[in-house]
Design goal:
Blueprint lengths: L3 E10 L2 E11 L4 E5 L6 H9 L6 E6 L2 E2 L10 E4 L11 H11 L4 H14 L15 H13 L5 E5 L7 H18 L2 E6 L2 H7 L2 E6 L2 E6 L1 H6 L4 H6 L4 E11 L1 E7 L3 E7 L8 E6 L5 E3 L8 E13 L3 E7 L5 E7 L14 E7 L4 E3 L1
Parallel strand pairs: 3-8, 3-9, 6-7, 7-8
Antiparallel strand pairs: 1-2, 1-4, 4-5, 9-10, 11-12, 11-14, 12-13, 14-20, 15-19, 16-17, 16-19, 17-18
């Protein structure tokens, strides 16, 4: 049995349905992420799991027990907020000890529990400092230590890294992965950052308008999106929409306006005229002035209409003779501002048939 079960949960605010008949399970010890744009319902769902809000319909079960009648403080669930929510007048030790004091833990046990929680987040020796004396990353770790000190069954994290700069956010992502493995408890993480979700999670639920569009492992979410929304929301994707021309066992031919006929690996049958789309990641495209022929490829001519140098890679915007714009990504193999092509250069672009993922 799953540790946490969300069964047909709905939450309305007047006429607005924030969470719409949503169901999923989270396993014990899993790093599970709710990913989606602002307003998709992910934070509302997290608040209902925490007990700060209640569903209008459905049930949330932890270890098979319905949480509906249990207030937040009585649930074995703790939340880490984006704002840290540390008490500025309390030391680090005081902040971490606070939930133990509220739980009427014996005074002689509090110091040992606080020391253990600070050690888990690598803040041993910081106990007497105050929040204003800490960096953003250190404040985040104090907030996590405070959440872990009562040994919850589930830790909820609501955009906890959003306030950090890019370098510190990357460092904290690595720390969170190690911390979750070390403590062995279930993390349910909320973010709108696709890269963060792909980096941290064992499974991701991609949310849109109160629904889950796809629940899967990160590699499947990225390489095999099930809907147009997922393909467009996760990373950068060329979405080539058209109608089926031919379908045989193993592949499909779509007629793409302003491009031409494109082949893609596909399962199932697509009658002629059926609308479909191919999700094609920019890094799957080969680019060159004259590409050597390769079997089972789609190949088109184009012109570089724009480029974006990003240090380790360059993103090229290519325009085909019929006006279709396609993005391709190439790694920069040399130091400095290396560019393989300039705006206006004529190029050939190609990708294997199985590089594109068909979305019905």
């Amino acid at each position: 049995m799953a540790l946490l079960e969300v069964r047909n949960v709905t939450r309305r605010f007047g006429d607005f349905v924030a969470v719409d008949d949503l169901s999923f399970n989270v396993e014990a010890g899993e790093f599970f992420t709710l990913l989606g744009p602002s307003g998709c319902g992910k934070t509302t769902l997290l608040r209902m799991i925490a007990g700060f809000d209640l569903p209008d319909a459905g049930a949330i079960l932890l270890d098979g027990v319905d949480l509906a009648q249990r207030p937040p403080e009585a649930r074995p669930v703790r939340t880490v907020f984006q704002s840290y929510a540390l008490f500025p007048h309390m030391s680090v030790e005081g902040n971490v000890a606070f939930p133990l004091q509220m739980a009427r833990t014996r005074a002689r046990d509090i110091a040992a529990n606080v020391a253990a929680a600070l050690a888990k987040v690598r803040l041993t020796g910081f106990g007497r400092r105050y929040p204003h004396e800490l960096s953003g990353g250190q404040k985040q770790r104090v907030a996590i230590a405070r959440a872990l000190v009562t040994h919850p069954a589930v830790l909820l994290l609501d955009e906890p890294l959003a306030a950090l700069d890019a370098k510190l956010r990357e460092e904290m992502q690595i720390e969170l992965i190690h911390l979750q493995k070390d403590v062995g408890i279930t993390f349910i993480y909320v973010t709108h950052d696709q890269t963060e979700a792909l980096t941290l999670s064992q499974r991701i639920a991609v949310m849109n308008q109160g629904h889950i569009e796809q629940l899967d492992e990160p590699s499947r979410i990225y390489s095999a999106p099930k809907t147009r929304f997922v393909a467009d929301f996760i990373g950068t994707c060329n979405l080539l929409e058209g109608s089926a021309v031919a379908s045989t066992e193993g592949f499909l031919v779509l007629d793409i306006p302003d491009l031409g006929q494109v082949r893609a690996a596909a399962s199932g049958s697509f009658p002629a005229g059926t609308a479909g789309a191919i999700a094609l990641r920019p890094e799957k495209i080969r680019l060159g002035t004259s590409l050597p022929p390769a079997p089972e490829e789609n190949r088109f001519g184009g012109t570089v209409s724009d480029l974006l140098y990003m240090g380790d890679v360059t993103v090229y915007v290519l325009t085909t003779p019929r006006g279709r714009k396609i993005e391709a990504l190439l790694a920069n193999s040399a130091a400095g501002r290396t560019k393989f092509f300039e705006v206006g250069d004529a190029v050939e672009l190609a990708w294997p048939i199985d590089a594109g993922h068909v979305i019905a």
